Amino acid sequence: MAVSSVSNTAASDWAAQASSTAGASDRFLKLLVAQMKNQDPLNPMDNAQVTSQMAQIQTVSGIEKLNGTVAGLTSQFAQMQALQGASLVGRDVIVPGNQLDIREGVGQGGFELSSAADAVKVEILSPSGQVVHTMQLGAQSAGMHSFDWDAGTATNDSGLRFRVTSTLGGSTTSATALMRDTVDAVTTSGTGFSLELARSGSVGYADVKAFN
């Protein structure tokens, strides 16, 4: 009397770990046939066991097909993003940074508060880090804000920067400096793309806070 030489558990474990759809299907069928040929007549395989094992191999196949579909959609999405990004060349964007943008004698900058603040201070800094002007903006809500500063005869070549400090109840809160920059080019890499900015260099598309 022949006794099963291939265990149900071994076949199930193998099916769950298969990495190749074609190879997995072939090996699964061979194991299943071997089990049925060598099963104990007094203790035959249960139909539920066979169905369960077949469902496992179908699951492996389905997951691999789904992964392939998702990979294809990801690639197409990246291409669409790149095409959309090309239309940004020459446009202004708002990104994290503390370089003051000066146009027609007006210096502009911005900041983002993670929570409301009862006091916000903006300091204009020289290239060496010296404070050349201070603005008290008072209470501000959470979110993005901008400010203007009379820059006089200064230009972007002056290298002026700014620093933002916010407090709530005497405790310092989180404030992120934001600057305006111009998109010079778009570069693609992997599944995403980056913007080449005139002053900030390469910046990820996801880091852009706003478009002007």
Automatic annotation (TrEMBL):
GO biological process, one term: bacterial-type flagellum organization
One of the Pfam families matching this protein, by short name: FlgD
Keyword Mitochondrion included in the entry's annotation: no
Residue span, FlgD Tudor-like domain: 80-209
Stored Gene3D superfamilies: 2.30.30.910, 2.60.40.4070
Ranges of residues in domain FlgD/Vpr Ig-like: 97-167
Swiss-Prot/TrEMBL keywords: Bacterial flagellum biogenesis, Cell projection, Cilium, Flagellum
Keyword Mitochondrion listed: no
Role played: Required for flagellar hook formation. May act as a scaffolding protein.
Membership in a protein family: Belongs to the FlgD family.
Name the UniProt record assigns to this protein: Basal-body rod modification protein FlgD
Lineage: Bacteria, Pseudomonadati, Pseudomonadota, Betaproteobacteria, Burkholderiales
